[in-house]
Amino acid sequence: MKRIITLIMAVMLPVAASAQSLPLRPASEGLPFKGGEKFYYKLHYKLGIINSDVATASITVDSTVYAGQKAYAARIYGQTAKFYDTFFKVREDFRSTFNSSFVPLHFYRDTREGGWFCINDVKYNWPASNISFTLENSNTQKNTKVIPIKPGTCDITSMVYMMRNVDVARLEKGKTYVGQRRQQDPCHIRGSVQVRGFLRQDGILRRPQISRSI
Question: What are the residue boundaries of the structural domains of the chain, listed by start?
């Protein structure tokens, strides 16, 4: 079965978007991935005289143990090709640890774009309904804030794997599924991620089209 699906999630780093409106398969049915899975991509850009691979990206996940519980450690990493490093060097590193119910436990981000950098370290405290958010970037000295969160809050990496567990059979044709809330982003990055494509029952999104607005 294939369904055309549009998923729009309000994102921040970490993402402050509820996933409760999305129909997810229960963990008892098994997950569409397992530890050791690795995907590698080449990012191609075509505009005017430019028609080449400009960057590479990888999406990986491994089984792990976090605070005494079984979990998954996922990573999304991207970098510009060596030739384009000369003009504008980019390194994007997003890491998340989450359990089999896609509840995030820890998130780390290290972004380097030209001479600008931003580092986030987020520890989730679900019993207290907050996160400890450590921020450091080119314009801000390292500091830590405690920010309240609600059930369904996730970060961008755990969100990618959560989306793969969507129960395709329960999706409504033509419906747009939207995150329920947005809160101020301590890194001053707000916006949305829109993913369109054919989502198969095995959790693989074919012909994906991903756009991000800030």
Answer: 26-174
